[in-house]
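dumping these here so i dont lose them again. two proteins, back to back, each one seq then structure tokens. dont judge the mess
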Amino acid sequence: MDTDVLKKLLADVKAGRIPVEKALHKLKHLPYEDLEFAKVDHHRGIRSDIPEVIYARGKKTEEVIAIARSMLEKSGRFLITKASENIYRELNLKNAEFSPASGIISYGGRPRKKGSVLVISAGTSDIPVAEESQVTASFLGSRTGRLYDVGVAGIHRLFSRRELMAKARVIVVVAGMEGALPSVVGGLTDKPVVAVPTSVGYGTSLGGLTALFAMLNSCVPGMAVVNIDNGFGAGCLAHKINMMGLK
């Protein structure tokens, strides 16, 4: 449950469209619902405006589905990260959306999109992490745009699309290898930059550590860095920054 759902519920009670008993039933699992193997935090969206999100990796398919259906019943939406196509098939929800590249399953994201979050990837191999960031920010209610495969090996590809950066309120930059692209973008814009290192690269990329260290040591001010391959975290941070002054 989030603030939008709660406001609508209270308005429906006030207008007499929903009986008090039915509203009480919807609220009785706040602040969380105990499923034994998981305690689903239905209250989180009200506290932080970011609902609990299901991290599928390491969970059984039936556990992921049970948590998702619990969230669907209480709030009408859910987001699953690091999911498989099998989980998507087993959910069997007509309007659920699955992004094979990012492994994200979403249902019932906020329909009204605000602001502008631009997600940039250095290479095509970085797209799965970039897609995770873009889908997350969009699900939460940010208007998003994408600019992919514009890394420093062909920097003219980025320069030809500078108008997209000028229109964005927040820019997420996803890069592996040497991790240079966020610094380049940060030097070209006055917008906040969220840098995402990926594990893409050869031996001395060290599973993304080289890109991470490059981003952490950037001399460009106004740039935040999230964990390796953490497109979800970048999408959440970009959304929160984007929504400042828009609510």
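---- next one ----
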Amino acid sequence: MDTKTVQALLNDFKEGRLSMEKALQLLKNLPFEDLEFAKVDHHRGFRGTIPEVIYARSKRKEEVVAIARAMYEKCRRFLITRATEDIYQELGMKEAKYYPASGMIACGERQRKKGSVLVISAGTSDIPVAEEAEVAASFLGSSTGRLYDVGVAGIHRLFSRREALQKARVIIVVAGMEGALPSVVGGLTDRPVVAVPTSVGYGTSLGGLTALFSMLNSCVPGMAVVNIDNGFGAGCLAHKINMMGSR
């Protein structure tokens, strides 16, 4: 449940289209619904811009499905990260969409998009994390674009798309290996850059630590860095920044 939902509910009650009993029934699960194995925070979207999101990894399929259905019943939308096709099939919701590259399941995505978030991946192997970032930002209401496989080994591929960098309001840059691409992008544009290190790379990439350290030590000032493989977190941050210019 988000601010718009509560406003609509209160307006329906004020105009007599909704009874007191029905309004109380709809509001009774604020701030959360207890499913025993999970306490679903329906109120989170009302308190801020990011509603509760379901992290599927390490949960049983039945648990993920139960949480998703509880959220759908209250607000007709949910977002699941790190999911599998088995979970999507178990949901059996035609309203939901499955993104196999990133393991995202989205239902009730905002149809009116605002601003511009550009998601860039250094290599094809970084696309799963990049897609996670794009799906998250788009689900929340940001207009998104993508620019894939433009890493520093063939930097001319990026230079040919400099116009796209200038048109974006926020840029997410996803890179593994040595993690150099966010610094390059940050040096080419005055747009906010959100850097995402990935665990892509050979031995001394140390599961993404090398890329993380490179991004944290970038000489480009004002660049934000999220955790390794955290496309979802990058998408949320980029969306918040994007919305600041869309009010």
